[in-house]
Amino acid sequence: MNLEIDINIDERYTSVSQKARLLTEKWTHINVLCPGCGGLLEKYPNNRPVADFQCLACLEDFELKATSARIGKSIPDGAYATMMKRLSSNDNPNLFLLQYDSKDWFVSNLLVIPRYYFSPNIIQKRTPLSLTARRAGWTGCNILVGDIPKAGRIPLVVDRVALPQKGVLAAWNKTRFLKEVPNDKSKSWLLKTMSCIDQLGKRRFELKEFYAFELQLRETFPGNQHIREKIRQQLQVLRDKGYLKFLGEGRYELSSTVES
Interior CA angle at 57 toward 176 and 62, to 5°? Predict the structure, then answer.
């Protein structure tokens, strides 16, 4: 993978943001393979409303968001209503997040978030635009990247170093089981449980340690009156899917194929 971005572009493009979008799209098309199967990515025609690329092999769609700033815990997206409709219809593309250095036009970081990691819980509704704005009343949203489990933020480039494709494919396949989980509260619970495991910060943990998240989970799911029972259920699901190993006596361990 060549991390240097070719800055040769048609001179008719004068907008800095438009140039950056075209340059990073071109770089992605030439250098990035599908993280799900290793197939070639084909660029969609410009101004397609949902996605920028499609894998020619597995037909997965991908959207690209590029920035010269650090990729933070929250990134702006489009209309809130459109995003929620895409989630409910399971029409959301996988998301590439690319950070580039505008001084030397080099790719600094690149990660991908599989589409099945998106749930209503990670979509933050922004304040509607004021009545004096050109698009008065329009309501955008933010994607809370920091709330997505680590397993769902798969790195392809880290600090100007491209990672082996084999590792990317393995990371993608570790949690492919989420693809079959309905995009409703059951998925939100599973993803939140995985995020809590991340917060523990260790491979082995005990059920009694996990109960420390009871208040946090109660705030996230205020309608649930049986939080501890739900915790045990979600840990069992993750065990059955191979994400966790049950060691007995309330002790769990992340599978050896899962990064802590």
Answer: 65
